[in-house]
Amino acid sequence: MLEAPSxxxxxxxxxxxxxxxxxxxxxxxxxxxxxxxxxPVLPALRxxxxxxxxxxxxxxxAGSAALRTAAAGYWARRGxxxxxxxxVCGPGxxxxxxxxxxxxxxxxxxxxxxWVSYAAQARLAGARPVPVPVLPGQGGVPDPAALREAVARxxxxxxxxxxxxxxxxxNPTGTIAAxxxxxxxxxxxxxxxxxxxxxxxxxxLVFDPADxxxxxxxxxxxxxxxxxxxxxxxxxxxxxAGVARLPEGPLGRGTHxxxxxxxxQIWSSAAxxxxxxxxxxxxxxxxxxxxxxxGRRLHETVARAVAERFTAVGAELPPVxxxxxxxxxxxxxxxxxxxxxxxxxxxxLTTLLAERYGVGLLPGAxxxxxxxxxxxxxxxxxxxxxxxxxxxxxxxxxxxxxxxxIRDSLNRFDExxxxxxx
Amino acid sequence: MLEAPSxxxxxxxxxxxxxxxxxxxxxxxxxxxxxxxxxPVLPALRxxxxxxxxxxxxxxxAGSAALRTAAAGYWARRGxxxxxxxxVCGPGxxxxxxxxxxxxxxxxxxxxxxWVSYAAQARLAGARPVPVPVLPGQGGVPDPAALREAVARxxxxxxxxxxxxxxxxxNPTGTIAAxxxxxxxxxxxxxxxxxxxxxxxxxxLVFDPADxxxxxxxxxxxxxxxxxxxxxxxxxxxxxAGVARLPEGPLGRGTHxxxxxxxxQIWSSAAxxxxxxxxxxxxxxxxxxxxxxxGRRLHETVARAVAERFTAVGAELPPVxxxxxxxxxxxxxxxxxxxxxxxxxxxxLTTLLAERYGVGLLPGAxxxxxxxxxxxxxxxxxxxxxxxxxxxxxxxxxxxxxxxxIRDSLNRFDExxxxxxx
Lengths: 422, 422
Hints:
The structure is a homodimer of 422-residue chains.
Chain A: H1 11-24, E1 30-31, H2 43-51, H3 65-76, E2 87-90, H4 93-104, E3 107-112, H5 116-124, E4 129-135, E5 138-142, H6 144-156, E6 161-167, H7 179-192, E7 195-199, H8 216-219, E8 224-229, E9 242-245, H9 250-266, H10 272-283, H11 286-312, E10 325-326, H12 334-341, H13 346-357, E11 359-360, E12 362-363, E13 376-379, H14 388-396, H15 404-421
Parallel strand pairs in A: 1-11, 3-4, 3-6, 6-7, 7-8
Antiparallel strand pairs in A: 2-9, 4-5, 8-9, 10-13, 12-13
Helix pairs in contact in A: 2-10, 3-10, 4-5, 4-9, 6-7, 11-15
């Protein structure tokens, strides 16, 4: 037998599949683990995909001109003027992030906590993740002072650290780094000669427009790569479409060319019919904007309702401002959880909730945090209904919390948290 | 500036894009470079994709149960009984091949010549390709005796060689290794404890059923991974759907699990609407079988016609038996090409043909062969028409060589080869 290279299945996808198996076996489950957004495809996007079903050419590796132009417009409307020639499309932002690590080379700084795949991708790319904690309540952006120290230490130890990943807004915490923190991160990256990979896939899921964070591309335009996709804002995870915006200038141009070369060797192009529909989505006609806004309102309403239930039993939680993620800390319940349930860490807590109550959450340990913490991630994306009709109803409901299937889930969650805290 | 990691754009995709730019600029071009099959999507498949446009869930990393079951049936009908639980779907067989290299680890033996991406993928995966020549007229399968020597040498030098890639039938040569060679390769792999990655994407494009090569999975079932996809047999390159069949037993199960883990971190899943249509294609209902047979007949007719033109000017060519690729050797014209055109190697020959005549071919050097050879690869997939109507006409024509657009291309090719050889 060969020695097994070390790689584990994405924790979010694994949790999702495990819960689906229990549901298929007839068990009552409540899925708060998956990052999937259970909402219907906007009919206009379905139609665009169907109309493009005859497209079977590979097309340009970087994506069709229509899609790259549409994505450039999307960023321009958000204050980032963009050359379509510096846009690269891929089959999801996940493969783009991986290909960027290969294109840039060297080790990568990842925030702690952060999305499950950054560190795993770094290892697959032959690099080592350099973990740097975030500031309290400002997930997704490594503390700039700690970043300086960590990179100095890594370089002193002979490690070739070349980039830093940030998530704005953040997964798993659902929080948003302050503009000053983003600016300081960008300044530190410039000083340390690091490329910034800014994962902005949740950009459109900030509840109050005043809270929208600036991109590091505003402060360090020459070295910031921005990525986004359609999985979260338009619930098109299964369509696999993402885009990256490379910086102007020699560093950006070189990174762009290597990214396209890597893409040509790993995936050739994103599915052509999907590219056609994605181009329409990034053009943001009114129906797309409305659909996105309806999803955002639904996330906000349900995430606030779930957050209230966490705080009602004594868990600590930052204010709910973006995404459909909550990252409660059960530290105040530590003594009780240990005594009543033999639970001493995040993995024990999520295992108990899954096995005794059929409630799927992800442990903070999956996001790179110390195992002893009692933080877990809850995602509301699967609470909106099981059927297309329920999900469509949730999107248009004046008060989604009064819909029976959402109310039942929340009541069940109340019961489970109550039993846990008693 | 960072040091640039070494990676170059896929030669086939680069040649294709370069020629497209010349065509868009109004130049007369004849594209024999791309591996893309310029044929229309079967209407039934378009309909299946359109009907699945509402599918937006990620679904299982390994692909939907329907697609895995259909792919298992596809292989069973070809003599390889297959457990759907050992099938993994990806966004093309290209990403599956790359993920397999990461899942297996170590260095990989690649045939010389071989498809442009095997060696490039190995380097991106942090491995080194171990080049082993094929036997004359039997492309795609490393000479088993030479394989033994090369692996022994590599291991003596401390290299951890773990797998060997074969292509059956072959790209770039269009040839088919003899069954005895496949058997000897499988035996050598077992003796050397190598995993065999058998790229069988051209399996359905063998012109005479009696010529269909056995898979190495017949001879070394415990260690052979088979990959295929829909890009070549059904001209669905731009849809991005491939499948891998992992072996039964502990080695296969371990490789399967690591492959799924890698897939979960790099791409999540293939596009869900594409998976739905791909499941239908792999079920092989009569309309799919007929469409595939029509494409195969067209490849055979046009490839034979192009082959005749190469031999007419004195290039050497193995018999035309499979795929839409020809791999002529201009060695007999070496003296003339040097004297009349200053051409001394395959790169010089393809540059001359592209720049003076607008004819796109790929040099043997792109496939890992020594640069001084005068071998080039010609692909007929782009000769079938520019429009959907022309391509549909080519598929159904009793004698496609009499269709004006194909006849004109062949006449132009005659002129160009004549000018080259004069």
